[in-house]
Amino acid sequence: MNPAKRIGLAVAAPVLAFAIAGIFASALLAVTGNDVAGFWDTMLTWPENRQLVNILNQTGILYLSGLAAAIGFRMNLFNIGVEGQYRIGTFVAAVVAGEAWLPGKANTLLAIVLAMVAGALWAGIAGLLRVTRGVSEVISTIMLNSIAGLLVGYLVAKVGVTTGVSTGTKTIPEESWVGGIQIFGDTPTELYGLVLLAIVAGVAFHVMLNNTTFGFNLRATGRSESAAVAAGVDVKRMVVTSMLLSGAVAGLIGMPVLFGQAHNYGTSFQLGIGFAGIAVALLGRNHPVGIALGALVFSFLAEQGNVLNILVGVSPDIVAVTQGIILLAVVIAYEFVRRYRLRLEQSSVAEQVAGPATEEAKA
Amino acid sequence: MTSLAPAPSTTDAVRVTGIGKRFPGVIANHDISFTIPAGTIHAIVGENGAGKSTLMKILYGVQKPDEGSIEVQGEKVSFSTPSDAIARGIGMVFQHFQLADNLTVLENVVLGAEKLHGIGGDARAKIEEISSQYGFGLDPDELVETLGVGERQRVEILKVLYRGARIVILDEPTAVLVPQEVDALFDNLRELKAEGHTLIFISHKLDEVLKIADDITVIRRGTTVDTVKPADVTSRKLAELMVGSELPSPSTEESTVTDRVELEVRGLEVVDAAGRPVLSDIDLTIHRGEVLGIAGVEGNGQTELVEAIVGMLHPSAGTMRLGDQDISSWHTRKRRENGIGFIPEDRHRHGLLLEAPLWENRILGHQTRPPSVKGGWLNRRGAREDTERIISQYDVRTPGPDTTAGALSGGNQQKFIVGREMSSEPVLLIASHPTRGVDVGAQAQIWDHIREARRNGLAVLLISADLDELIGLSDTIEVILRGRLVGTFDPQTVTPQDLGSAMTGAGEEK
Amino acid sequence: MRRFSKIAAVALVASLTLAGCGNDDNSSGSDSAEGCKGASGDGPKVGLAYDVGGRGDRSFNDSAWEGMQKAIDDLGATCTEAKAAAGENDTQREERLRTLAEQGFDPVVAIGFIYSPAAAKVAAEFPDTHFSVIDGYSQFLVGEKPLDNLVDLTFAEEQGSYLVGVAAALTTKAKHVGFVGGTHGDLIKKFEAGYEAGVKSVDPSIKIEVKYLTEDPNDGKVGFENPSGGKLAAEGQLDKGADVIYHAAGKSGNGVFEAVEAAGDGIWAIGVDSDQYQTAPAGQKEHILTSMLKRIDTAVFEYVKAVGDGQAPSGNVTYDLAGDGVGYSTSGGFVDDIKDQIDAAAEKIKSGEVKVPTAPAN
């Protein structure tokens, strides 16, 4: 296949997906009596600078979540528990940073490392259950999500400080905060400093996946566990290791907001990023760049959802449904393109060996 | 093709002419032809992978043939779906039962066929009628989960008859049955035949086939070899037809066997999940430069033997030594690093990442060794270059190392695997059915590669269903039967007939 | 297998991310179905920011809307509504308030304490716009100097809960009552504390069952939008012998009503926030003893009016029994015979003779 065709095919799927999603979303808006023209008008308006900052912030957070999910997905391990790992990790970091055993940024660093450790251990439980007892990681991580919520809720009530009707962990001392970055001059919102973690994690993921033996084993196990076993991959160890890695990245998800905005773990803690990350990973085909684009799309929609709600009167539920439609459309479109590409490749191989193959068949 | 083309007759239930079916990279069937007279039991035999199941799927409308024609009761038909086949009175009883455990016999039978006789009294009457007519002895209201295997199978057959089938295909129906149940099944089948049904019976158990069939069609390498009467053949002759003895034999060269032991297996035992032994008391020795062939009817422990030596499953007893090292406790990776090359029986499941490009497949099984890897880091360029080398050296027909493995034909995939396994200069090569599903040209090339490696001092464990291959390549042949090695033969003197009787256990009786 | 699991994963994710979208229940009365669209007066331009769920919950958010409706009718106010999506963070809430302020809405009413950090930030950015947070705690978040344009509108839920606790204690025959809370957070603990104190004030020997639908204070979904959980919790308490159950669990309370209705005569439930006798189905009405009234409608209306009059409050305004900000309902007439005793308790609270705790005893 020539490069032009290759790129064409790579672009075809997302274009097809967004076309499908656009049509369905418009139909849905029309059926529910919403202002379709207004919807598109708002959607296609370039966001204001402060909104761009919000979008980038949310993209970074979602990206980390998507990466966490993708590490498991790449070896057919469905870590649905990113949400729980994220909560545990964020809570641990908030407590540690709030206690401030170390001064300044050392405190920050310690908290971030412990967040990763906590997330990894939480995920590791599911990994161990899978390799020792054969418990499906889908079931165990869903249960661990619930347990994480209850455990953290209980602990916050136990150790937290109450402000009005909100109880949260101790506020992190200001010297340990990670300041924002003003990227567009004077906006009331700033890029979280720790959003840059997303870039680091993304590059690390890419290198790990494509350039290391570990990454190769991970992908091989995902593509064919039986072939990996025959090739000498210790699948059990891979399961545990990738769950640990996945959980460690999940532990990072809450860091930008914790050190950049909230400064404690409390009632206004954001829920559901872990689940959104699964969607983003699927949207991005578990590819480091794809996930970034997926996260960008979801963040953009979420940000525009606000404006749509206020200016056009479109319910945020519709925006959520649109996200769902995009996701399904992308998965379907990719499957179409994948099959098409395979057929194309087979016919090109057949051309290559056309003569001998058919003769052999008749022999 | 001795029994081809008797004059077209309406008394023929099924007539298949020149059926061919290709999948990307594999030719599953070609030029399949046979005729089944109405009211007979027709067996179709062949080794696993010979193309039986594809043929059945074509007859039952699951797949469309690329060429050839099918006539049912003298009429030319073309099935797109199984319901087309059912409409023509063809029914299929699958090897794996398709029953809902928590429903009753009646519910299972009417499920999906509610329009025929409703779901109430009429249906019950019909089921009872069929059941008593053929001596099935089934109670319509019994829950399927309480039934034994034999009874379940009868429910499957009842389902097919209920839908009006006159031609019933049974896929390996005895595979799941104990001998008494087999006898009961055969009684039922004879009843069905007496009522004018036509039965197509697929199996590789030769003695059973000889007992029940009126005609036997043998399939090998995707095509019909012959159709014979049970009275005219022995089980030995049938085995020969199945595995082939008239193909050009790979000529044996002079022995390169040395006296240095490369692999030594002692007292190997493997048990299955239920604790029953699938391999017992296996003692094997392979010297450098020696090819040890394992002959046996499929399912007698060959797969387990291979997997135990590669380290994919854990034996319950026994030791294994590679050279002068005890490898019994080693993990697969360490065994491979120390020179075990592996050509798996099922290349799609165990040999390749079908969705990955060839150069990544080059790394598979060699994740810790150059040229594709350097200290934990992949060496993409090294892997690519070495893939190019394999492509040219082993004549893999592909546009290049970036082609996904799944796009290649079976023969080319296999040549690639052979090339890969040879590239790390193994000391022991485990070749499990190395030429199965491979075209004749590739087969000869693979044989040449194995012979050359043997000349260079490689020890080879060769498992094959093809007796000619075994005889032509091996220095020693061991026969495996029910998980035990039951005889050692010298390929120079042995005949396929000798092997055939040892494989089927006929030798034991003497 | 791989394809299958991928499809399964997509379906799972879709259900997880989209769950809760189908909860819109627009049966809250024809007068409010149109929302802000019908209003066209020249009074204050109000921006309403709801939490997840929005108008139509028959409880908290609807109560706020009733106040807005009154402002439209009486003050000629106009408005726009915005509601939260599931799984938001403070940034998104800030942006909602900011957009409303930017569009010229004044005042901006944020419904739910979750908006407190966002309001504290945005109010500083828009000094000329008035912000209020129902149940809020933003005053603690603005630093040393309070903002003139920001107010928390809070309620003495414990006082109202005390009164329905008295009603429960006077009604129970089994000397055994129950409490079903949504999430185990500080806000709902106030309800529990007041109720408990009220019950004990009548008869310290009465046994009280307490059940929160979730211990996770962030999980509003299981806490407040979970009627089946509410039903299960109530059934558990009924099995233990309780015969009056007070709920502070939003929509989950509908499950409590169902359980009580099914338990038959002599078994009672107590509603919360608004007079739930009015909105309950006929069969349940006979079992709703009373409701703890939390007059969010009053708070919203008074706040809009004050802003319109140029007298916007700041800091904190607490609506308590004395100001009729909380109370109890008498619809159905089931508490007529004990009304005197409840009112007497109310007088004691108003006079300061009884001080109701805001956190449960244990």
From TrEMBL, chain A:
<feature type="transmembrane region" description="Helical">
    <location>
        <begin position="85"/>
        <end position="102"/>
    </location>
</feature>
<dbReference type="InterPro" id="IPR001851">
    <property type="entry name" value="ABC_transp_permease"/>
</dbReference>
<feature type="transmembrane region" description="Helical">
    <location>
        <begin position="7"/>
        <end position="32"/>
    </location>
</feature>
<feature type="transmembrane region" description="Helical">
    <location>
        <begin position="138"/>
        <end position="157"/>
    </location>
</feature>
<feature type="transmembrane region" description="Helical">
    <location>
        <begin position="291"/>
        <end position="312"/>
    </location>
</feature>
<feature type="transmembrane region" description="Helical">
    <location>
        <begin position="318"/>
        <end position="337"/>
    </location>
</feature>
<protein>
    <submittedName>
        <fullName>ABC transporter permease</fullName>
    </submittedName>
</protein>
<dbReference type="Pfam" id="PF02653">
    <property type="entry name" value="BPD_transp_2"/>
</dbReference>
<feature type="transmembrane region" description="Helical">
    <location>
        <begin position="191"/>
        <end position="209"/>
    </location>
</feature>
<feature type="transmembrane region" description="Helical">
    <location>
        <begin position="52"/>
        <end position="73"/>
    </location>
</feature>
<dbReference type="GO" id="GO:0022857">
    <property type="term" value="F:transmembrane transporter activity"/>
</dbReference>
<feature type="transmembrane region" description="Helical">
    <location>
        <begin position="108"/>
        <end position="131"/>
    </location>
</feature>
<keyword id="KW-1133">Transmembrane helix</keyword>
<dbReference type="GO" id="GO:0005886">
    <property type="term" value="C:plasma membrane"/>
</dbReference>
<keyword id="KW-0472">Membrane</keyword>
TrEMBL record, chain B:
<feature type="domain" description="ABC transporter">
    <location>
        <begin position="14"/>
        <end position="246"/>
    </location>
</feature>
<keyword id="KW-0813">Transport</keyword>
<dbReference type="GO" id="GO:0016887">
    <property type="term" value="F:ATP hydrolysis activity"/>
</dbReference>
<keyword id="KW-0067">ATP-binding</keyword>
<keyword id="KW-0472">Membrane</keyword>
<dbReference type="Pfam" id="PF00005">
    <property type="entry name" value="ABC_tran"/>
</dbReference>
<dbReference type="InterPro" id="IPR050107">
    <property type="entry name" value="ABC_carbohydrate_import_ATPase"/>
</dbReference>
<feature type="domain" description="ABC transporter">
    <location>
        <begin position="263"/>
        <end position="507"/>
    </location>
</feature>
<keyword id="KW-1003">Cell membrane</keyword>
<dbReference type="InterPro" id="IPR003439">
    <property type="entry name" value="ABC_transporter-like_ATP-bd"/>
</dbReference>
<dbReference type="InterPro" id="IPR003593">
    <property type="entry name" value="AAA+_ATPase"/>
</dbReference>
<dbReference type="GO" id="GO:0005524">
    <property type="term" value="F:ATP binding"/>
</dbReference>
<keyword id="KW-0547">Nucleotide-binding</keyword>
<keyword id="KW-0677">Repeat</keyword>
<dbReference type="InterPro" id="IPR017871">
    <property type="entry name" value="ABC_transporter-like_CS"/>
</dbReference>
Automatic annotation (TrEMBL), chain C:
<dbReference type="InterPro" id="IPR028082">
    <property type="entry name" value="Peripla_BP_I"/>
</dbReference>
<protein>
    <submittedName>
        <fullName>BMP family ABC transporter substrate-binding protein</fullName>
    </submittedName>
</protein>
<feature type="domain" description="ABC transporter substrate-binding protein PnrA-like">
    <location>
        <begin position="50"/>
        <end position="358"/>
    </location>
</feature>
<keyword id="KW-0449">Lipoprotein</keyword>
<keyword id="KW-0732">Signal</keyword>
<dbReference type="GO" id="GO:0005886">
    <property type="term" value="C:plasma membrane"/>
</dbReference>
<dbReference type="InterPro" id="IPR003760">
    <property type="entry name" value="PnrA-like"/>
</dbReference>
<dbReference type="InterPro" id="IPR050957">
    <property type="entry name" value="BMP_lipoprotein"/>
</dbReference>
<feature type="signal peptide">
    <location>
        <begin position="1"/>
        <end position="19"/>
    </location>
</feature>
<keyword id="KW-1003">Cell membrane</keyword>
<keyword id="KW-0472">Membrane</keyword>
<dbReference type="Pfam" id="PF02608">
    <property type="entry name" value="Bmp"/>
</dbReference>
<comment type="similarity">
    <text>Belongs to the BMP lipoprotein family.</text>
</comment>
